[in-house]
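step: validate -> pass
step: tokenize input -> pass
step: predict -> running
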Amino acid sequence: MSYEVADSAVVYPGTVIGDGCKILDGAVVGKQPSLSPRSTAKKEKLPPLELGAGTIISTGAIVFAGSRLGERVIVGDQACVRERCEIRDDVVIGRGSLVENDTTIGALTKIQAHAYITAYSTLEDNVFIAPCVATTNGNFMGRTEKRHELLKGPTIRRGARVGGAAVLLPGIEIGEEAFVGAGAVVIRDVPARAVVVGTPARQIREVPDEELLENQ
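step: predict -> pass
step: emit ->
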């Protein structure tokens, strides 16, 4: 096996690096988290980070221990992937984006620059997340102990697309092949193939047949 690690990169002991990986200038991989005493994340010693073959960790990016990245994943400049994440093959995480802990991202998903994927989210295969999308996972905003039991990010089903600067509230589901317009605030589940826009988001039509994944 062969891989490239820049002189200025930091690779923590035990990190598993697949064949053909590139870890670029100033990147940090395999880091254990430093958690606040009030954090809702699990406090535990994490297993080593695993990077699949051909994965690229770009300049200044940080990928934490306990996560697994598949093959040919690209983590963009200054992006971050937290602990216990499962990132499957051919995913792109754009510059400055943050994928929080305990999140699963399916194959061929694209997350563009400066998006925020909150903890305990699920994104299925072929999802598209436009720049500056914000997802949320708690209705209590850090207050009351009840928040620990009810944390849940969105579930975004196969082929769904979320437009720029849209906001998704906790625990909602975006249906398969649905389309969320730019700037929408999504406060309830979105049916499969629905096109929703506005604040709060409302359905205006369905995604046409020619835009479905099966017809691409």
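step: describe -> The chain has a mean pLDDT of 94.
step: cleanup -> pass
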